[in-house]
């Protein structure tokens, strides 16, 4: 490869969470990239979390989709685009516009999203475009619209720093919005902010909580109704929104028992909230992902509306968005029931205005199908052509097996992705390679309405093209070339900005019309800015003046009668909670490429309360089969009192590519909130029983591992790959099986103890460890960090001991991903160097001093060392996190 001189840093934006951190990306001249936090970006002021810091490890060509494919064969772009356009046009001609659909993503750039929405709603003439934001923000959107008359996030990040009390409801901010969490933690340190966490689970976020309410799952509306009644009792109602009396009456009628919380804990919460004029209530998926999610959102908004604690410094409700451009998608009208620029699909004047602006032949006039219903329509053949862009529904949708079957059975499926092998891509007729982060240009809007540029730093991988251009090229081939004739995302952005000027005349709040005439140069130089941005208004908070976007100008309170989740049954007695881990992003197509992000939690797991584990006869690190009427998963058991009895938790990240049966959404029913259509992803009724394998194994190889056994989970290493394995029956010939699985040949070094059922093999190549396999009748007990560190080294046969010799240190499972500091190193440091604080650990060992994402875990380890000195540190990564 031609080494070029390194180029200067490019200012861009992180493609992961909705915090929207500014990133300085420096190409190394050899196709790679180094990253740092952008000190000038207002969201992060130079900070990055662990996922952002590892971005440079995910931009290689590994796993990328490099050329279009038709039925598994590489094809030219013209051939693929012609086929897509023809099949969509034919289907529409024969069966009408509602026989086709797009399923898109809050990870698309605003420009991509705008073009997809314009094509479907204005030209195809159907509103069958929905997005993974349906699984994510739909209840917040619906709650905002009911309360404010528009989908507007009132506040700013600095409100979390200016508040006296911050309440986090159903939000694991420490792991899911880490930089915002760090800002809050710093403010708390500086000014003593009181922090309340409301979550049935004790999460890493509880590290900074003055009060943790481990309420009964799904009882949030009860709690906020109790708060509203208390607000009235204390005479704190200062405003007169619509339906105030009805909402207060509903609140007064609410009994506290459903929360399962002691009276004194509820009282502490009420005192804190009511006693803090400056209070911010942050909420996220523990609220939204519920079959009464919209009511829960409104129960929270009611309290802020009644007290006027909204749109003021340090006060307001705050729905933090998950995806980098969840907000941009809402702005362009990416949901099936919205129109562009916060306009309303069911309003004829709005439709006419948008149609006039687009000069389009038709306009969808009724809401399209929402995600769950969309895939049901794919299943029963109402939708005959489907285009999935930038999302992986075969993994992330509820009833995921049913969704995968529906996609497989659909007449024509197109998938645009940057990765070649995903659970969804496997089911497509046509695969279109999209440029990924670092290769594309456009804008994203973060949780506080700040629009930032993503900028191209690297050349597109292979033949990959930008999503907006792919969609526009298909539109042109369907006969609408002149309406889709942009040469750059700058022009798309300018059109969107101009449309916002039209929308504002119809009462929309979304207004960036200042940028309607933006040139390509100005677009390239665009600094992060808050919307609105027009001659009328620039940035700032909304609703502090008491004026809302309703016909009366008043806010609307919603009387909420709390509804609890569907009861569990005798056959499925556990309520499964689901969510995220610190170092992985969704279906792992990108974070799974990073060795450093794959070390923290390397296997799909089930957090189970000790009492449940004992009753089910599930030992720590054993395997459990989790089943619902819809499907089954096999997960590693992590016994912990972080979860309550009866309420286990499992992460969402594992797929058919990374585990045998780790897809958690195969268990989750499609039941959705009647207002928002958002599914209840956090409360599946499941049964749990031991999965008793005949053998368990752990393997590493410098080659890709191809497991063929009943249980497996793979992860990427710096020097190769690892796999956890288990099987119901032993293979006839272990050596042959090992060679096939680990991609090696030749005679291994072998240690065998048939009495104990132990078999260990090491394959050497040129004196270096090429692969090794450990088999045991129980979950393999060995130092994984040692085995992983030995891969590729001249360790010889000593590796078969499975742990380091007495003269070598065993770092233990990874805690600090940035500096690769293991749990044993930290526990030893605490014991021998008398490290008493997280900062002291940092000074001595480096851990926690770069991105800071592991600081809650370091604090937990300090606590553990104090309460259980000398306790063994397990090396099975899932047993470590935050324990
Ligand atoms: N590391 C990482 N960060 C991410 C992502 C990622 O994949 N990985 N994804 C991003 C995206 S798209 C999103 S949407 C956000 C999500 O961010 P969060 O919403 O913070 O994340 P989750 O882990 O889905 O769920 C949050 C919490 O809800 C709790 N919960 C479950 N049921 C209830 C309930 O009934 N009431 C209450 N009060 N709480 C409950 C869970 O125990 C969990 O701790 O994260 C974003 N950030
Ligand atoms: N049980 C349960 N299920 C859940 C959740 C939960 O908490 N519990 N959370 C839900 C939520 S909040 C969300 S947001 C979803 C997320 O679920 P998904 O959206 O399905 O997850 P991702 O892995 O982010 O999928 C993004 C896909 O787009 C590809 N991609 C990345 N960049 C680009 C690009 O620029 N262009 C194109 N064309 N492709 C690209 C990636 O390779 C990947 O395949 O999961 C939902 N599912
Ligand atoms: S907090 Fe982390 S994942 Fe989120 S935008 Fe910032 S660096 Fe990216
Ligand atoms: Mo999300």
Automatic annotation (TrEMBL):
Pfam families: Fer2_BFD (PF04324), Molybdop_Fe4S4 (PF04879), Molybdopterin (PF00384), Molydop_binding (PF01568). Transmembrane segments: none annotated. SMART domains: Molybdop_Fe4S4. InterPro entries: Asp_de-COase-like_dom_sf, BFD-like_2Fe2S-bd_dom, BFD-like_2Fe2S-bd_dom_sf, CT_Nitrate-R-NapA-like, MoPterin_dinucl-bd_dom, Mopterin_OxRdtase, Mopterin_OxRdtase_4Fe-4S_dom, Prok_molybdopt-oxidoreductase. Residues 7-63 form the 4Fe-4S Mo/W bis-MGD-type domain. Its cofactor is [4Fe-4S] cluster; Mo-bis(molybdopterin guanine dinucleotide). Keywords: 4Fe-4S, Iron, Iron-sulfur, Metal-binding, Molybdenum, Nitrate assimilation, Oxidoreductase. CDD domains: MopB_CT_Nitrate-R-NapA-like, MopB_Nitrate-R-NapA-like. Belongs to the prokaryotic molybdopterin-containing oxidoreductase family. NasA/NapA/NarB subfamily. This is Molybdopterin-dependent oxidoreductase. It comes from Paracoccus fontiphilus.
């Amino acid at each position: 490869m031609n080494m070029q001189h390194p180029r200067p840093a490019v200012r861009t934006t992180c493609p992961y969470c909705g915090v929207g951190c500014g990133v300085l990306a420096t190409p190394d001249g050899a196709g790679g990239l180094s990253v740092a936090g952008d000190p000038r970006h207002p969201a992060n002021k130079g900070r990055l979390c662990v996922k952002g810091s590892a971005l440079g490890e995910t931009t290689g060509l590994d796993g990328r989709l490099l050329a279009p494919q038709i039925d598994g064969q590489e094809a030219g772009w013209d051939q693929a685009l012609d086929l897509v356009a023809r099949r969509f046009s034919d289907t529409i001609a024969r069966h009408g516009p509602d026989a086709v659909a797009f399923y898109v993503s809050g990870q698309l750039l605003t420009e991509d999203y705008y073009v997809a929405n314009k094509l479907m709603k204005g030209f195809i003439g159907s509103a069958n475009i929905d997005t993974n934001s349906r699984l994510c923000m739909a209840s917040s959107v619906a709650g905002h619209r009911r309360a404010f008359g528009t989908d507007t996030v009132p506040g700013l990040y600095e409100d979390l720093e200016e508040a006296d009390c911050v309440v986090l409801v159903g939000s694991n901010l420490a792991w899911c919005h880490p930089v915002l969490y760090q800002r809050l933690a710093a403010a708390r340190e500086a000014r003593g902010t009181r922090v309340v966490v409301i979550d049935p689970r004790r999460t890493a976020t509880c590290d900074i909580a003055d009060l943790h309410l481990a309420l009964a799952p799904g009882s949030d509306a009860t709690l906020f109704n109790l708060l509203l009644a208390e607000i009235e009792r204390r005479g704190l109602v200062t405003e007169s929104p619509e339906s105030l009396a009805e909402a207060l009456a509903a609140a007064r009628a609410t009994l506290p028992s459903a929360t399962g919380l002691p009276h004194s804990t509820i009282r502490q919460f009420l005192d804190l909230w009511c006693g803090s004029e400056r209070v911010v209530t942050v909420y996220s998926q523990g609220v939204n992902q519920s079959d009464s999610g919209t009511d829960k959102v409104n129960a929270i908004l009611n309290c802020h509306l009644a007290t006027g604690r909204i749109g003021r410094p340090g006060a307001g409700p705050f729905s933090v968005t998950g995806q980098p451009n969840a907000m941009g998608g809402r702005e362009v009208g990416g949901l099936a029931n919205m129109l562009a620029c916060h306009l309303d699909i069911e309003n004829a004047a709005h439709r006419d205005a948008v149609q006039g602006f687009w000069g389009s032949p038709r306009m969808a006039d009724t809401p399209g199908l929402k995600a769950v219903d969309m895939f049901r329509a794919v299943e029963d053949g109402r939708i005959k052509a489907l285009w999935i862009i930038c999302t992986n529904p075969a993994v992330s949708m509820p009833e995921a097996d049913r969704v995968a079957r529906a996609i497989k059975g659909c007449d024509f499926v197109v998938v645009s992705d940057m990765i070649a092998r995903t659970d969804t891509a496997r089911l497509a007729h046509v695969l279109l390679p999209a440029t990924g982060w670092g290769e594309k240009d456009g804008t994203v809007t973060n949780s506080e309405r700040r629009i930032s540029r993503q900028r191209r730093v690297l050349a597109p991988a292979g033949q990959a093209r930008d999503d907006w251009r792919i969609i526009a090229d298909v539109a042109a081939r369907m006969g609408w070339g002149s309406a889709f004739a942009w040469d750059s995302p700058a022009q798309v952005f300018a059109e969107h900005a101009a449309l916002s000027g039209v929308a504002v005349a119809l009462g929309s709040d979304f207004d960036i019309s200042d940028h309607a005439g933006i040139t390509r140069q100005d677009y390239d130089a665009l600094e992060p800015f808050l919307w609105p941005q027009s001659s009328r208004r620039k940035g700032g908070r909304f609703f502090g003046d008491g004026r809302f976007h309703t016909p009366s100008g008043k806010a609307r309170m919603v009387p909420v009668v709390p509804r609890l989740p569907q009861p569990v049954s005798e056959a499925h007695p556990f309520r499964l909670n689901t969510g995220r881990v610190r170092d992985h992003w969704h279906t792992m197509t990108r974070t799974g490429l990073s060795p450093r992000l794959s070390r923290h939690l390397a296997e799909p797991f089930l957090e189970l309360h000790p009492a449940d584990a004992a009753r089910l006869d599930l030992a720590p690190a054993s395997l459990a089969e989790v089943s619902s009427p819809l499907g089954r998963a096999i997960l590693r058991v992590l016994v912990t009192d972080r979860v309550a009895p009866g309420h286990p938790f499992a992460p969402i990240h594992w797929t058919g590519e990374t585990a045998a049966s780790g897809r958690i959404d195969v268990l989750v029913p499609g039941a959705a909130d009647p207002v928002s259509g958002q599914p209840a992803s956090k409360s599946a009724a499941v049964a749990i029983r031991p999965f008793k394998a005949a053998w368990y194994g752990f393997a590493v190889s410098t080659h890709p591992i191809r497991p063929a056994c009943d249980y497996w989970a793979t992860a990427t290493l710096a020097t190769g790959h690892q796999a956890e394995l288990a099987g119901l029956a032993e293979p006839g010939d272990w050596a042959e099986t090992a060679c096939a699985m680990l991609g090696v040949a030749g005679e291994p070094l072998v240690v065998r103890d048939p009495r104990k059922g132990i078999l260990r093999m090491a394959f050497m190549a040129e004196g270096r460890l090429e692969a090794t396999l450990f088999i045991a009748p129980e979950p393999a007990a060995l130092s994984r960090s040692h085995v992983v560190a030995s891969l590729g080294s001249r360790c010889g046969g000593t590796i078969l001991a499975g742990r380091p010799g007495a003269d070598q240190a065993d770092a233990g499972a990874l805690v600090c991903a940035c500096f690769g500091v293991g749990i044993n190193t930290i526990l030893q440091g605490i014991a021998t160097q008398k490290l008493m604080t997280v900062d002291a650990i940092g000074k001595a060992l480096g851990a926690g001093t770069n991105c800071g994402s592991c600081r809650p875990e370091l604090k937990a380890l300090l606590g553990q060392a104090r309460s259980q000195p000398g306790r063994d540190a397990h090396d099975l990564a899932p047993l470590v996190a935050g324990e």
